[in-house]
């Protein structure tokens, strides 16, 4: 970065560099102290904001240190309202003859606090839940507590699953069973006849339309779930023969998650509406069209049909869906159905942020060596290396780099053969790093970067060690190369003068982050600030509310992080509404079947034996056991 820029750096430069306003959806911005803020709108359209650093400080004072998962309840409420209100507006503006009923798929974030918040914020919209397993249905039945909202049951269903849903219907709960495979029809019929309850049946169809994006295997002929047109007709006939065709009320499909292209959304609706109209024609009452999930999140803020983005707004999504349904059904003279969507990702992604501190950094720069200098008597290869580094000019970057690399490798191989000393080798490594850094600086000014040197900035970038586990907190970064917005949450009024990749605290070389959102395209390094002595440096990973929490695992036995849920009041004050202390070491050990008491007992015996052998005193034994016990109940992450 050039000197001038560093001096005149403003918050605006940071906003642009990290694309905050592109991916922040109006929820995240930065304040004049250079800290990331959460922006909220009051009921009268007035806005208020709170700094994430204030929330972090409040949590730390309450004993919830880094890494810390922040759930911002207001953002969850706001997204539920946005989705419902935008559909309501599209329905009104297009003159659509029915309503929207959203359901939240529990699998996207099963945490009790999240589901409770969705049920409570969704109440005024009759927003329901989607359950994909018995466990999720049980949670839904107890938490939802609103018989106007729907509970849609997907997934494989055994008799127990179906019986539970049928019993709940007796209580007035609106349960829908979506038939995913042909064999389920028979089970539903059998259970319903036994229980004497008329079930609400839905059919999940396999659309032929294929979509773009990462999850496109969910659609098409070979998708795991759903009925083909032949299965569907068999189901209609089967229901008719049991006098249950009047129970077939819903058509469901799911294109896959994170559908980046609006064209695919529209194609899906059009195809589904053909099926819908024909089921009506067959004599089923229908009434509900369930479009599944797929509403994408613009993680990189590019507004494109790239995997981690989307080329449509929520307005466009709702209007396109409504228009496509009307376009098909009106011409067939079929009444407009209730529109259901199962948006998970778009509902919860915004509300969670992971905050973590940086523990240390590594730089690829020469190390200060006081007692080691190059002298005339050193090996010729070392002197050649010194010459090559000494003669770098803007005109010979590629050539100088090749020479330096060659001589450094020669010195390395001489070392292997015992022909240079460890000190000489250290000098050679230092010289090479010095030369490479000089070349990298000159590249900033070069008009054209030679092909062989394009990776140099990356190779020389710093490593920032983060107090968190990628596997536990953002597993999709590791599993599917997902990119999330990642940036410092303070010091944004200062120019970031370093460029780095992030390594996590697990000792797995996959525990790293080296793909970041950039101004135009994805970047391999992230601009960061130098650490300041005695001051924490806090980064945040944003938009992680969907799919990350329960998919995370205990790699290296790093457990659940601390969690706080906050609700921001209109006067800008922060309510710490829920706190969950992260797993202790004894918690994670128990998960993998150790028994902390038995472990202590074994360690005690070891200490007792050491006393007997005269290795330690009794007083030392006491202290050692206290240290052991304290660690056992401590946080699994780095504690300061
Ligand atoms: C996973 C899933 C969803 C959620 O999809 P999002 O893209 O997160 O909205 C919805 N419906 C079904 C059937 C699913 O399997």
Question: What would your notes on this structure say?
Answer:
By secondary structure, this protein is an alpha/beta fold. 41% of the residues lie in helices and 16% in strands. The chain has four domains: 231 residues, Lyase, Ornithine Decarboxylase, Chain A, domain 1; 248 residues, Alpha-Beta Barrel (TIM Barrel), CATH 3.20.20; 78 residues, Methane Monooxygenase Hydroxylase, Chain G, domain 1 (Up-down Bundle); 38 residues, no CATH class. The protein has 23 helices and 21 strands. Helix 6 crosses helix 7, helix 8 packs across helix 9 and helix 14 runs antiparallel to helix 15. The longest helix is centred in the C-terminal third of the chain and has 24 residues. Bound molecules: pyridoxal-5'-phosphate. Pyridoxal-5'-phosphate binds next to loops. The site of pyridoxal-5'-phosphate has 17 residues, from loops.
Question: Keywords, please?
Answer:
640 residues; alpha/beta; Lyase, Ornithine Decarboxylase, Chain A, domain 1; TIM Barrel; Methane Monooxygenase Hydroxylase, Chain G, domain 1; 4 domains; 10-stranded mixed beta sheet; globular; binds pyridoxal-5'-phosphate
Strands, helices and their partners?
Blueprint: H1 3-7, H2 11-17, H3 20-23, E1 28-30, E2 36-41, E3 47-51, H4 52-61, E4 68-72, H5 73-94, E5 100-105, H6 112-122, E6 128-131, H7 134-144, E7 150-153, H8 159-170, E8 174-179, H9 182-195, E9 200-204, H10 229-241, E10 248-252, H11 262-282, E11 288-290, H12 314-332, E12 338-341, H13 345-348, E13 352-362, H14 380-390, H15 397-416, H16 422-445, H17 456-459, E14 462-466, H18 470-473, H19 475-479, E15 486-488, E16 498-503, E17 512-513, E18 526-528, E19 538-541, H20 548-551, E20 562-568, E21 574-580, H21 585-591, H22 596-612, H23 618-632
Parallel strand pairs: 4-20, 5-6, 5-12, 6-7, 7-8, 8-9, 9-10, 10-11, 11-12, 14-16
Antiparallel strand pairs: 1-2, 2-3, 4-13, 13-14, 13-19, 15-19, 16-17, 16-18, 20-21
């Amino acid at each position: 970065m050039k000197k001038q820029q560093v001096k005149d750096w403003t918050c605006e430069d940071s906003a642009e560099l990290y694309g905050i306003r592109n991916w922040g959806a109006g929820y995240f911005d930065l304040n004049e102290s250079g800290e990331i803020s959460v922006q909220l709108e009051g009921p009268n359209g007035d806005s208020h904001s709170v700094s994430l650093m204030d929330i972090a400080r409040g949590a730390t004072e309450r004993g919830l240190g880094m890494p810390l998962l922040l759930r911002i309840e207001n953002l969850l409420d706001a997204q539920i309202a946005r989705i419902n209100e935008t559909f309501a507006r599209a329905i009104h503006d297009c003159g659509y003859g029915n309503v929207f009923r959203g359901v939240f798929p529990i699998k996207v974030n099963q945490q009790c606090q999240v589901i409770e918040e969705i049920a409570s914020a969704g109440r005024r919209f009759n927003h329901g839940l989607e359950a994909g397993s018995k466990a999720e249905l049980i949670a839904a039945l107890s938490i939802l507590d609103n018989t106007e909202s729907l509970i849609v049951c997907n997934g494989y269903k055994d008799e127990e699953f179906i019986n539970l849903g049928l019993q709940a219907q007796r209580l007035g709960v609106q349960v829908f069973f979506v038939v995913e495979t042909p064999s389920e029809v028979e089970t539903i019929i059998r259970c319903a006849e036994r229980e004497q309850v008329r079930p609400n049946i839905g059919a999940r169809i396999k659309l032929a339309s294929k979509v773009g994006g990462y999850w496109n295997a969910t659609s098409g002929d070979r998708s795991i779930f759903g009925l083909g047109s032949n299965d569907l007709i068999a189901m209609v006939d089967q229901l008719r023969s049991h006098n249950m065709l009047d129970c077939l009320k819903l058509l469901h499909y799911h294109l896959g998650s994170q559908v980046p292209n609006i064209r695919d959304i529209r194609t899906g609706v059009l195809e589904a509406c053909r099926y819908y109209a024909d089921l009506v024609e067959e004599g089923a009452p229908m009434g509900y069209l369930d479009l599944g999930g797929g509403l994408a999140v613009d993680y990189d803020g590019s507004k494109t049909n790239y995997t981690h983005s989307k080329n449509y707004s929520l307005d466009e999504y709702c209007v396109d869906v409504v228009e496509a349904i009307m376009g098909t059904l009106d011409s067939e003279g079929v009444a407009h159905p209730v529109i259901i969507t199962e948006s998970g990702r778009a509902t919860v992604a915004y509300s969670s942020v992971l905050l973590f501190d940086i523990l240390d950094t590594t730089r690829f720069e020469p190390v200060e060596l006081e007692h080691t200098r190059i002298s005339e008597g050193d090996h010729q290869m070392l002197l050649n290396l010194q010459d090559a580094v000494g003669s770098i000019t803007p005109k010979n970057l590629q050539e100088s780099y090749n020479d330096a690399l060659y001589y450094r490798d020669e010195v390395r191989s001489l070392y292997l053969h015992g022909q240079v000393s460890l000190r000489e080798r250290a000098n050679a490594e230092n010289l090479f790093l010095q030369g490479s850094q000089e070349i990298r600086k000159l590249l900033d000014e070069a008009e054209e970067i030679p092909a062989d040197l394009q990776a140099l900035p990356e190779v020389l970038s710093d490593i920032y060690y983060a107090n968190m586990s990628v596997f536990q907190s953002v597993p999709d970064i590791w599993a599917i190369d997902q990119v999330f917005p990642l940036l410092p949450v303070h010091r944004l009024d200062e120019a970031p003068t370093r460029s780095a990749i992030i390594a996590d605290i697990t000792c797995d070389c996959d525990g790293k982050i080296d793909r970041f959102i950039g101004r135009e395209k994805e970047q391999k390094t992230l601009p960061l600030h130098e650490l300041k002595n005695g001051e924490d440096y806090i980064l945040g990973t944003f938009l992680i509310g969907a799919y990350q929490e329960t998919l995370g695992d205990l790699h290296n036995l790093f457990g659940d992080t601390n969690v706080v849920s906050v609700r921001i009041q209109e006067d800008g004050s922060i309510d710490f509404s829920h706190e969950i202390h992260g797993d202790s070491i004894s918690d994670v050990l128990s998960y993998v079947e150790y028994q902390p008491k038995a472990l202590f007992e074994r360690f005690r015996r070891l200490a007792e034996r050491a006393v007997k052998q005269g290795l330690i005193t009794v007083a030392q034994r006491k202290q050692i056991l206290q240290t052991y016990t304290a660690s056992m109940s401590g946080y699994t992450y780095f504690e300061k």
